[in-house]
Specification:
By secondary structure, the chain is mainly alpha-helical. It is built from 9 helices and 2 strands. It has helices at 9-28, 34-61, 64-83, 93-117, 125-156, 158-166, 171-196, 204-211, 216-249, and strands at 88-89, 262-263. The protein has a two-stranded antiparallel ribbon with strand order 1-2. Helix 4 runs antiparallel to helix 9 (216-249), helix 5 crosses helix 7 (171-196) and helix 6 (158-166) crosses helix 7 (171-196). The chain is globular, with a radius of gyration of 21 Å. The N and C termini lie far apart (52 Å).
Length: 266
């Protein structure tokens, strides 16, 4: 098997030319996306180069009191990002996003690292940081979609919700329909990914291991574990976010506090 092929800055520049094609299509079709494409491309390069240097230093230093803070920062950024999506928001949404993502991703990540992969030492950055990063990225999507669908369903069906409460329904009986729709919405991306993995798409971790010279079967085993960890964390995070949203918008006296929902400022 041939060795790992390193990429030069010129190779990266060649791939960046594809973004120019996207920009040209945006101009030709009057999509007004060229500035967003350029900014997204710049952010991609800067952020990945930055994390590359940071991870190089962390891998070399290899201490738990360096690895854990970095993982905490990654989790906070994921929580902040999830709370900034959606058309509507409410007081406390950011805290709900961070709490649901933190609890689900760290719980599932710990299970994967300590029980399944069994790394030693437990803070081995080569495993802990990439695995948590993959879990966070997918859990973030589930949480943001869950909260967005919950707030939209409650807004669109406010009349039905308040009528149910007026007729004697409990707050959960009135909210369970929107809550189920929200959980489904949050889990759909992961379910779709699992349905086509290996047939249509080759996931990043598996591709990276194969490119690095790992046995394809070993790479597949790791990817199966990662997919199951992602599915579990996305489900737990989405359910947690929806439950926290429900508790924010319904009082213990079984009243719907629709006034908390406000349209996000553009």
């Amino acid at each position: 098997m041939s060795g790992y092929q390193n990429l030069s800055l010129f190779d990266i520049a060649l791939s960046a030319a594809l973004i120019v094609v996207n920009g040209a299509l945006s101009v030709a079709l009057r999509l007004d996306l060229e500035r967003k494409l350029a900014w997204a491309a710049v952010r991609t390069v800067v952020q990945l180069l930055l994390i590359g240097y940071v991870l190089g230093w962390v891998f070399e230093f290899d201490r738990w009191y360096v690895v854990l803070p970095l993982m905490a920062v990654m989790t906070l950024i994921a929580g902040f990002s999830a709370s900034n999506r959606g058309r509507r928001t409410y007081a406390g949404q950011r805290a709900d996003s961070i709490a649901s993502i933190w609890a689900s991703s760290w719980l599932v990540g710990a299970f994967g690292l300590f029980v399944v992969i069994r790394i030693h030492p437990w803070y081995e950055p080569q495993y802990a940081i990439p695995i948590l990063g993959m879990i966070l990225g997918n859990t973030l999507t589930g949480v943001s979609l869950g909260i967005e669908r919950m707030t939209e369903e409650l807004t669109a069906g406010r009349g039905a919700v308040e009528m149910s409460l007026a007729l004697g329904a409990t707050r959960w009986e009135a909210a369970q329909g929107p809550a189920r729709q929200a959980v489904r919405a949050g889990m759909i991306p992961t379910l779709n990914q699992m349905a086509v993995v290996g047939l249509v798409s080759l996931p990043g971790m598996m591709t990276g291991q194969v490119l690095a010279g790992q046995s394809p079967l070993q790479a597949v085993r790791y990817q199966i574990v990662i997919m199951f960890l992602i599915a579990a964390s996305s489900a737990l995070g989405t359910v947690g976010a929806v439950v926290l949203t429900y508790r924010r918008l319904f009082s213990p006296e079984h009243r719907f506090i629709g006034g908390k929902l406000v349209e996000r400022k553009k």
